[in-house]
Amino acid sequence: KNIHFCFVILRNINIIKMKKTSLLFIAILLSTCAFTQEEAVNSKKNHIDIYYFHRSARCATCLSIEENTKNTLDEYFAKELKDGTITFYVIDYEGDKDKEAIDKYNVDTPALFLTKIKKGKETNKELTDFAFDNSLHNADKFKEGLRERINALLR
Known about the structure:
The structure is a single chain. By secondary structure, the protein is α+β, with helices and mostly antiparallel strands. The model is unreliable at about 35-45 (pLDDT under 50). The chain is built from six helices and four strands. The longest helix has about 40 residues, at about 1-45. The protein has a four-stranded mixed β-sheet with strand order 2-1-3-4.
C-alpha cells in the first residue's frame, strides 16, 4: 500500500509539473499569437505613402516638387506624418537604392504618386503631370491641389 501511495503521489506531482509546463507553454503561445495579430493589424493600418521619384541630376521643377510637397505635408499634415498615417519617400530612380519601389511603380521618368493603403488594398493616384504643370510657377495651386487630394484619400 505504501508503494502504491508513493506512486500516486509521484504521479500527481508529475501531473502538476506537466500542468505548470503546459500552462507556461500555453501562455507563451497566446502572447506570441496576440503579438503577431497586433503586428498584422498595425501593418494593415490605413495610411498614405507619397512617392516622389527623380533623376540624379535635377532641374528647378524637380526640386520645387520635392520642396512644395514637403512644405504642404509639414503645414497641413504634420500630425499624420508624426503618427505614420502619411509617409513621404524621395527616391532617385537612377540610383541603386529602393529598386523595389522603382519596379513597383515602373518608373523611368520623374513621377509623383499618392498611394492609399486601406485594409491591405492599395490605390494609386499619379500626380506627375499636375506636379510638373504647377509646382515651379504656381506653387500655391500645387500645394492646394496636393492638399485636396491627400484629404480625399484620408476619408
